[in-house]
Each structure stands twice: as C-alpha cells, then as structure tokens.
Amino acid sequence: MSAPPVRGLILSGGTSSRMGQDKGRLLWKGIPLIQRQVNLLCQIIPSVVISCRQDQVDLYHPYGDLLIDDLPSHGPMSGLLTAFQHAPENAWFVLAVDMPNMDAHHLAQLLHSRNPKTVATVFQDLESLTLQPLAAIWEPTALPLLTKAWQNQRFSLLRILESNPVTTLFPTDKTVLNNVNRPEDLPEPS
Q: Is the C-alpha dihedral spanning 13, 75, 36, 93 positive or negative?
C-alpha cells in the first residue's frame, strides 16, 4: 500500500496578538514571512496552500493558494483540522509562518524521514525534548484524533503528538525551531 500524498500547509491564521501585527506580513531579510515560507516549502512539496482566516484573504492572496479556516480560531488546530476536512486523504506537511530560521535542508530531512505508519513525523528539540507540531508531517490517521480533541475542546496539537505514536528527528541546527512571537524576537534592522 502506497503512502498518502503529501501537501504543504503554511499555518498563518493566528491573530498575532503578542506581535501586535500580522506575522506573515513581517519582513525577514527583506521579504514578507508568508512569501519566505511559501517559497521554502515549495522547494520540497509542489502543492502548498496557505491556511488563513477570512479577514486575511486580501493580505495573503498574492502569495499563493488559500485555504480559509472553516472553524473558529483555536490556534493551529483550526487550520490543520480545516485542511484535513478539505482533503482527508492527504498527509499535511505543516510549516508555521513564524519560523523564519527553518531551511530547505531540514524540511527535506523531515520528508525523507517520513513514516506514514505513525500519526506524524516531527522535529524534537534536542535540549527540552519538546515535539514541534508546527514543522511536521501529519498523516491522515491524525484526522479522527484531531476531531475528537476538537469536540472535547482540547486544542493542543502537542498533546496529540505526546499521546500517540510519532516519528521524531532532531534538527542539526536547533535555531530552525525558533519562532517569532513578540517584536523583540525580530532581528535589529540593518
């Protein structure tokens, strides 16, 4: 039996409340983060969509195909569950819009390490051993788990990973898992 096809999903539907502005529009090395992440994931997966809220359509439409979150906003789970509801036969290669240090080498490593027999293939932080649900390949077997968690109002993707079989790998550069949540996380302008 062949592995389910993989599609790319840039998660960008958050409200960016701590940042104070839409993270996808932040410039990183001269380009908007949303454009950077789409370009990056497209190097690995030919079919990539941007998960966003309805009120972000005009902002993100120029950067690629959009998948509007059908569900109320409850963090990244809203975008991932919407993606699975639209295409349950696909595995979803998830990349958060706010992980600007991620690179093509690590994404290719994740795809190469993919194990469709587990719920997800994810990076694990070498020091904290925390699993990273927002740079991961989620398999179709995750859909019933996501649905049940949603129905029980448990919106943590990390909790799903921690309580189900996953394939893990450690990044060779731990900074690729860093994200930008607050203005102080941004580099100083040069």
A: negative
